[in-house]
Amino acid sequence: MPVRRFDSLDALRGVAIVWMTLFHFCFDLNYFGYLTQNFYADPFWTWQRTAIVSLFLFTAGVGQAVAVQQGQRWPRFWRRWALVAGSALLVTAGSYAMYPQSFIYFGVLHGMAVMLLIVRLTAGWGGWLWLLGGLAIALKFIAAYAHQQWAALEFLNNMGFNWLGLISRKPITEDYVPLIPWLGAMWWGMAAGVWALRQKPHWLALDTGAAGRPLAALGRWSLPYYLLHQPVLIGLLMAVGALK
Predict the structure, then answer these.
(1) pLDDT score at 124
(2) pLDDT tens, position by position, 61-88
(3) Main-chain dihedrals φ then ψ at residue 106, nearest 5 degrees
(4) How far apart (Å, rounded) are the C-alpha atoms in residues 30 and 33?
(5) I need a labelling partner for 92 at 20 to 30 A (CA). Which of 112, 177, 224, 237 fits?
């Protein structure tokens, strides 16, 4: 079956990319001393990060629904998955060079690699995906309560287990996207994609118009853009600093 791209889905991913770029530019300005903001605690910034990551994972889930509906076979899935997993390793290496004390060992690409596999394996579970997504999100709060009751759960905060997300405190790392609760966003994306393809296929086929085409084009190249945008932004700010 020929692969069909949906401009509306790509444009939605493009919106997430633009938002992420603006967020990271402000983060970099803060890092180089041009801003004074607390990106780790201020709700203005933490909620933006939550929304951006949720949008990326939701669109990834919808994309998996489209891939399954179009008959994507496992060899093609594995090729695309390998790009995500390999890119995650590059992020770890690059972040270690810049932030050795808080490098990224399970950020958005690491989480996405694991979640894509889980979501693909559960693609045929229909309406249960809505329930599973809600459960994944609820487990974040259940785990926090469980930690208060049982000190023996402290091991879940260790690096070997905290990628699950069943933690009582956030680890020291520049990006952290564990399975819980973020798998819920991708499961809901898969569920929404399956529903839309069956009930409202015209939603995915919406014409984005001239204004949306650049966003759709950006959304098609989200992975290379994600890998390159921070080195470019940081490089530009370092150049500005050198000129001063």
Answers:
(1) 92
(2) 999 999 999 999 999 999 999 999 999 9
(3) -150, 70
(4) 5
(5) 237
